[in-house]
Amino acid sequence: MTKAKLGGEFTLPGTSISLYRMGYGAMQLAGPEVWGPPRDVDAAIAVLGEAVAAGVNHIDTSDYYGPHVTNLIIKKALHPYPAGLVIVTKLGARRGENKSWIPALSRKELIDGVHDNLRNLGVDRLDVVNLRVGAVLEPSEGSIEEPLTAVAELQRQGLICHVGLSNITPRQLREAQKITEVVCVQNFYNVARRSDDAFIDALAKQGIAYVPFFPLGGFTPLQSSGLDRVAASLQATPMQVALAWLLQRSPNILLIPGTSSINHLRENLAAAALELRTDAIAALSAIAAGPAAAGQSAH
Fold this sequence. Notes:
- The protein has a single domain (9-222, 252-260), classed as Alpha-Beta Barrel (TIM Barrel).
- It contains ten helices and eleven strands.
- The protein has helices at residues 41-53, 70-78, 107-121, 145-156, 170-176, 197-206, 225-234, 238-249, 262-270, 278-285; strands at residues 9-11, 18-20, 24-25, 58-60, 86-91, 93-95, 101-103, 126-132, 160-166, 182-186, 209-210.
- It is globular, with a radius of gyration of 18 Å.
């Protein structure tokens, strides 16, 4: 896999950050239920090394994965970080002792979260921070001014370079843009769940990246006979087709499929070279829209 085949490049608005559109999501590097360490830390380190060697320059993570697990693995595997590697992290949640996902949007929690990320990643400044709001899988309307103002303060202090948002509505984006520039939006979207279609198009017009979380369905992978038929016709896997569809859906879509397997990583990256014909895209459009099963985990 060459860099030229990683789906092309996208430059985050107002920045000089150019990302290959096929990135990597680190959530699955933690243990089962995104809790505790993985069964094989060396294997997790090998996956990260393989991703970067293949040209991936966009890793998505959060210090509440584990918690405090994936960032430490990223640091062990890749620090000192190669030039051009962009690590995107998230704030806005914490883990309960019962493995629950709890909102963490107070000013103190956000400040603590930034410092946890800085320490565990081994950096002085975070490249991009997504403020995660809303419900478990869906956005929920309401003002995000208070938590975002706290994040913007941390940005002005030089601890955060750029700000993104996760699990938001178009109205919340407009509110956010009065506080700080937003370089990316990360919402739940995939070939079977397309409620953000209009939002993606509006973001593309503004040059803002859209990063779908659970691009392959989450903890219960996408399943569709239509997806299977298209994959068989292309001699690809259904998951490769689902990723290729996202890349062709809009040029501002960046992908962060996660895996703890080198073989699956290679399959995911190879999807960037898969071209879907018009008939294949039409067949995929017939997949019933609606919530794709994704467990009850946050992202």
